[in-house]
Amino acid sequence: MSFDVAGEAYDRFMGRYSQPLARTLVDWLEVAPGQRAVDVGCGPGALTAVLVERLGADHVVAVDPSEPFVAACRDRNPGVDVRQGGAESLPFDDDSADVAAACLVVHFMTDPVAGVREMARVTRPGGRVGATVWDLRGSRAPMAPLWTAMAEVAPQHPDESDFQGGSRESLVGILEQAGLTDIEADELAVTVTHPTFEEWWEPYQHGVGPAGEAIAALDPEARTRLEQVLRRNLGDGPFDVTAVAYAARGRA
């Protein structure tokens, strides 16, 4: 799957959901002034920006494997140490953070248990490690309308329902296997109002993530049919899309 896209393309596609979710996650993790935080899989910087508001740029570090996302996060968050790298081998010292967070990232990690274990390594003993993943198993992600329509138009195409971390049990299990203690889980909901169908649909055309790749793989006739089914299901707008993420947190 591809995240080798400009930060602006990701913002139009997922940022409209991930930005309010990031703010809720920071509150849920009880991030407080004076702490040091690491944003794992920072993307263009939705969570990074909220952490900077709470802690200051000199108390936040971030990492992402996508070069365009790293560049965007650096530009948007001056003073933050943003590095390119994967979650499974974080470029930060042991016990260097009070809190480590991954917002909508765990299901894209090559090895989620290793990634969360690395998050725990860079977090001081007793510090918080937390993550969110959309409820992919329960079809409550922002992309759910797209996958519902894809099942009608191209049922052979796999969706995201089996991604690791996409259910409460799966996400909690990853934290448990990574060795965290005092694990808790909750649901975090985000509602976005889309003024028109076109405003909702346009960001899906840029090949971002599994949804964008699925659309790009369709032939022109199937893509036209997909749009017709989506218009039928969603209407012209305005309409609301409520997405629900599972959040899990534990202690390093």
From the structure provided, what is the oligomeric state, counting identical versus distinct chains? single chain
The percentage of residues in β strands lies in 15-25%
Total helix count?
9
Shape: globular
Essential attributes:
alpha/beta, Rossmann fold, seven-stranded mixed sheet, 7 strands, globular
Tell me what the structure shows.
Helix 1 packs across helix 2 (46-55). The longest helix is centred in the first third of the chain and has 22 residues, at 7-28. 40% of the residues lie in helices and 23% in strands. The chain is globular. The protein has a domain at 7-137 and 160-191 and 243-251: Rossmann fold (3-Layer(aba) Sandwich), CATH 3.40.50.150. With 252 residues, it is α/β, with parallel strands linked by helices. It has a seven-stranded mixed beta sheet with strand order 3-2-1-4-5-7-6, sandwiched between helices. InterPro entries: Diverse_substrate_MTase, Methyltransf_11, SAM-dependent_MTases_sf.
Compact overview of the structure:
With 252 residues, the protein is an alpha/beta fold.
Write the layout of secondary structure elements.
Elements: H1 7-28, E1 37-40, H2 46-55, E2 60-64, H3 67-76, E3 81-84, E4 97-103, H4 112-121, E5 123-134, H5 144-153, H6 168-177, E6 181-194, H7 197-201, H8 209-216, H9 220-234, E7 239-251
Parallel strand pairs: 1-2, 1-4, 2-3, 4-5
Antiparallel strand pairs: 5-7, 6-7
Domain Methyltransferase type: 38-129
Family: Belongs to the methyltransferase superfamily.
Keywords: Methyltransferase, Transferase
